Every structure is written in C-alpha cells, then in structure tokens.
Amino acid sequence: MLRISYHGASAMDLGYLLKKNPHRAQVFELSWGRAYVFYPEVGQECTTVALALEIDPIDLARGKVGSNHGGLFDYVNDRPYASSSFMSTAIAKVFGTAMTGRGDDHQALADSALDLTAEVTMLPCRGEQAMLNRVFEPLGYAVSFESFAADEQFPAWGESAYVNLTIRGQVRLRDLLKHLYVLIPVFDRQKHYWVGPDEVEKLLRIGEDWLADHPEKGYITGRYLARRRSLVNLAFERLASANAVDGEVLVTEPDPTDDPPRITLNEHRLSAVMAALKNSTAKRVIDLGCGEGNLLKLLAKDTRFTQVTGVDVSHVELERAARGLNLDRAPERVRERVTLLQGSLTYKDARFANYDAACLVEVIEHLDPSRLAALERVVFEFARPALVILTTPNREYNSNYDHILPNGLRHSDHRFEWTRAQFQAWATRVGEAHRYEVTFEPVGEIDEVHGAPTQMGVFSLC
Ligand code: SAH
Questions:
Q1: How far apart are CA 143 and CA 146, in angstroms?
Q2: Residues facing 393 on adjacent strands
Q3: Ligand 1: which of 265, 295, 313 to mutate, most ligand atoms within 8 Å of CB?
Q4: 248 exposed, middle or buried (CB, 10 Å; 0-12, 13-18, 19+)?
Q5: Which CATH number does the domain housing residue 42 bear?
Q6: What's the number of domains the chain is made of?
Q7: Domain extent at residue 277
Q8: Percent of the chain with pLDDT over 70
Q9: How far is CA 409 from the centre of its chain?
Q10: Angle between helices 294-301 and 265-278 (to 10 degrees)
Q11: For residue 344, which atom of ligand 1 is closest to its CA?
C-alpha cells in the first residue's frame, strides 16, 4: 500500500492534481490484479490518498503474468503484500496524468513544490536500510522507516526483510511519483516483467530530471535494470552524455557480484527435467500430474518425443493445459502426438503403461502420505517405464524464504515436504523394491547449507 499526503493550504486540491475524486473510491483492473484508490483523509490542512493493490499469488505462480514457462514466481511469494514493481505499474496506470505534470485548471499547483509525504508499506529492503537514506535524501526528502521483528513471538528470527518507509519533502507531485515509480523496484529487486532494453529508455525518461546527478545513480541504475550488465552500461553511457559538462568518467567494469539474469525456479525445474529426458533415449513420455501443462508444452515442441501424454486428476488443470497447448487449433500431426487424460496416480491404470519415461514434477507432495504407497505401485510396479523423473521441494531450503514460517510449507495444498535425507531415503527404498537405480540432482540456486530449492530423483530401470 502507498499513501501520499499533501499538507498545505490547498490540501483539498490533491484530488484535482491526481485526477481522482476524493469522495469516491475507485477500482482499476490491471493485468495482474486490482488497484484501489481512496482517500483516508480529506481536510483543509492535510489530504491523503491511498493506493492499495490486490494480487493473487496463485495467478502469479501459474503464469497469468509473465513468462512462457508458467509463472515468474513460486507459489510462495510475497507479492500480495510487499511494495514492488506491481506498485510502480499501478502508479503509472492510476496516476499517469499527474506523473506527466499535466495539471489543467491547477497547473500552477502541479508545477509547485508542495509539502508531500509518501508512506510505502512493506518495502522489501533486505539489510539495506542505510541505502534508504542515501537514495531518498539527495532527492530532498526526510527519511524515516519502521522496521519489525520477523515474528514477535520469536525474536531469534531477527529483523523482517521489510520496512514501512516514510519520506517527506518539498517536491512537485510529478517528481514524487517518478521517484516512487523508479525507486520502489530498486529496493524490491524482483521485477514482475522481463527487463529488456526498453527499460533503459523508461528509466532515462522517468529519471530525466534527477537521475544523472544522483550520487547513487550507479546503485539505482544497476538495481532498476535488474543488474543486467549490458543494459546498465547502456544507461550509464546515456547518462554520462546527458551530463557531459561534468567531464565525469563512468567506470563500468563488470561487477563480479552481478546477479545473472533471473531464472525462475519453475524454469530451472523444467530445464532439469528436459535435460534428463534428452539425456535418455525416451521417445514416449507421460507427465503424471501435469497440471496446466508447462512441461507438456516443451515436450510437444520437440519432435524427438513421439508420444506426449499428460495426466491429471483435475479437469480444471487439464482444460488449462489444453488451452495452453492450443490443442483445438494445433495441426493434426501435433494432435496425434499429444494426449491429455483425466486419471488418478493412486489407482492402477492401464493407460499409464508402455511409456519410455514418466515425469512427476512437484506432484508427490500433493498426496496424503498414506496414499504414497499406492502411487509407488502405480508408477514403479504397474506403469513401469524405463525412466522415472521425480521432483519435489527440498524442505531445508524453506528457511531461505522470508515469508515461510519455520515448519511452514510452500503451498497450502502441500501435504508434506521432505528434507534431502527424507527424499533420498524414500527414493532409495522405492528403487530397491522395484529394481530401479536412482540418482539425485539439486535443482535451482544452491545454498551451501540448505541445498537447492528443488530436489530431483532420476530412476532408471535396471
Ligand atoms: N507438474 C505440474 C503441476 C504440479 S501441481 C507442474 O510442475 O507445474 C500438482 C498437480 O498434481 C496438480 O495439477 C494436481 O491436480 C495433480 N494431482 C494431485 N494429486 C493427484 C492424483 N492423485 N492424481 C493425479 N494428479 C494429481
């Protein structure tokens, strides 16, 4: 949530400047959710407008927003309550006119520096609180923030990664909006959209009046462009030429701490599974618990796989998969190769037999532990493909997620999550019982202590 307050004799005119009626709450539909605008306070001395977002974390994870390979976010994400790049896009959408500086009947006020305060709730700011001052103070704001214990019941967990930030200064409304637009994602770091070259243009346009002279322009530019080195260099070159009078030389040596472009965990997982399949001679592949068909899409595109079948217990998921695969409109040769089946993995099913490989990607943890023995027989005894590729969360890694409580799980539908030892013990026993050899692979960015977020077992029939 973002609140902007205007203190001053014409405080009531904030509604004119923002072109939003103070006496009416408004809802804006955005591609990823909703933005609500309302005025908690309308007064002669102070008027406050609030911009609140409603975001469905499940939609984000499923990929309504973002990439081709499902969502940009894991099921566990802080997006619904953190101030993030979603807030920036909402600012642009809802207060776009005010951001351009157009004030119409109130142009003089729009062009004046006003006593404005912005409160940004739940701004992710992992240990970088000092940067709040260094980024906002040079722009003329007094900065204060409130930080919290991650959980008051458990002081040992330390400080939360989030702060409630308040900045107050004498600025034009358009400048405040532009500062927030750029700087919220600088602190948040996770963009909900792919950062490409057009982001450089956007940054330079919105930062036109203030970025070139900012003492932290390197930090801001690097973060805003998600640290993509080529884009950061491009932005620096342009900022330097805009500022050539300074005679300043910008050093743009590659930074060894640069983050590589972000690959989501979902993408890591799909590519690990695809690599294991391509590493084998499998041609006929069945995806058990295919969900909305992210893996099926990749399999369908690769003609080495002559038969691709997706199974799920959920009709809704199968319908999504059919839509995602465009099965209605696909040419005959694609439709011949790709089949969707409704079925359960805990009942023996002749349709699952005669495949070279079966994949179970993030499926077993959705089953009650008491049903696992049934799944084990259905897959390893009855279907019995030469290769089984199975992934499941590594519970140990959960402590790297800020928003999972100790002992919490990543998704409300998970019935359990296993440590590496638990998964390996189960898989080894299953392999021995059914004569499969099993190897294990970490998937995703590896944490030295807790391992990777996802664990993969590859079972090969002896
Ligand atoms: N493999 C997909 C989906 C994972 S979510 C992906 O990686 O995106 C788990 C899926 O398993 C859901 O779609 C759920 O409907 C399905 N599922 C859960 N229990 C099942 C069962 N007993 N039989 C078949 N599918 C099941």
A1: 10
A2: 454
A3: 313
A4: exposed
A5: 3.30.1610.20
A6: 3
A7: 265-461
A8: 81
A9: 18
A10: 40
A11: 23
In sequence order, what E strands does 136-256 have? 141-149, 159-171
CA–CA separation, 242 and 356 (whole Å): 60
Ligand 1 proximity of 226 Cβ (cutoff 6 Å): no
Q: Residues 41-64: pLDDT tens digits?
A: 999 999 999 999 887 766 655 554
Q: Where does a domain end: 211, 236, 262?
A: 262
Separation CA 453–CA 398 (nearest Å): 7
Q: Is 415 in the pocket of ligand 1 (CB under 6 A)?
A: no
CB of 346 within 6 A of ligand 1: the answer is yes
Average pLDDT in the 1-6 region? 96
CB of residue 291 inside a 6 A radius of ligand 1: yes
The token duo for 198 is: 């057009």
The protein residue whose alpha carbon is closest to atom 12 in ligand 1 is 291
Q: How far is the CA of 419 from the centre of ligand 1 (A)?
A: 20
Q: Kindly state whether residues 220 and 307 are assigned to the same domain.
A: no
Residue 303 half-sphere exposure toward CB, CA atoms < 13 A: 2
Decide which of 209 and 67 is more confident.
Answer: 209
